[in-house]
Amino acid sequence: xxxxxxxxxxxxxxxxxxxxxxxxxxxxxxxxxxxxxxxxxxxxxxxxxxxxxxxxxxxxxxxxxxxxxxxxxxxxxxxxxxxxxxxxxxxxxxxxxxxxxxxxxxxxxxxxxxxxxxxxxxxxxxxxxxxxxxxxxxxxxxxxxxxxxxxxxxxxxxxxxxxxxxxxxxxxxxxxxxxxxxxxxxxxxxxxxxxxxxxxxxxxxxxxxxxxxxxxxxxxxxxxxxxxxxxxxxxxxxxxxxxxxxxxxxxxxxxxxxxxxxxxxxxxxxxxxxxxxxxxxxxxxxxxxxxxxxxxxxxxxxxxxxxxxxxxxx
Length: 314
Prior knowledge:
By secondary structure, the chain is an alpha+beta fold. The protein has helices at 16-25, 31-48, 64-73, 78-83, 93-107, 180-189, 191-195, 199-214, 241-251, 291-308, and strands at 4-6, 57-59, 116-121, 127-131, 136-140, 143-147, 150-156, 173-176, 236-238, 261-266, 273-277. Strands 3-6-7-11-10-8 form a six-stranded antiparallel sheet. Strands 5-4-9 form a three-stranded antiparallel sheet. Strand 4 (127-131) and strand 5 form a beta hairpin. The protein is elongated, with a radius of gyration of 35 Å.
């Protein structure tokens, strides 16, 4: 029969700080929690003169050799075991702090600059158009490229500045586009896929985006057709009639709501652009960083050192 060794003394009164330490000491070991518990434990011990973490009883094997092995594993002397002192392992605070710092370093977000690079028009290409207010003659179609390293399909939202393909721009900022009609337009056409399903659709969608952006006349409906009373101040003076008709059809049948989120990419020096996402939302992930690997490596090294380090106890 195994002997049960009870603590000979009753548990001392525990101060509030010691009560908190008792709770922390029995949580799963993590570096940050361990450092916190050790600091509170030391303060509590100095004030009250009592050990803040205790056990009501401890079971020890009868075999002296087995008991000695357990004592070594738990950071006790054999005499401590004979007196019923519970195991309380503590390690040097500096080592634990270093381990906690390595883990914290591995999860710190890495700041990175915004990067936009357009590689050209989408696969369907573009169509030449001329528009008014502001007057411009350019190609109408969707662009493809990379935003912070991720593929993106986007559209021109500004006709008064310029933009070059295959140049990486680092001065763009992203914000909500703000105009709900843009989100409703994406919903009407079926998102970027519908807007780029054909050359006509791609040009029509770009014309529709410009109409929403530049039309300032209060009208019952948007209209890109030139020479009509409802054309307003912005319309196409030269464009594929099929693209103009398709753009008018979309603009005059916008739904009441939209599941798309439209973002504006703004630069003070180059053209502005818009693109849309739909849940699950596209996320701008940070560039790969060596910090997580360094943090994990340091944590593994400290764990290996800690297993071989001498153990102190109260």
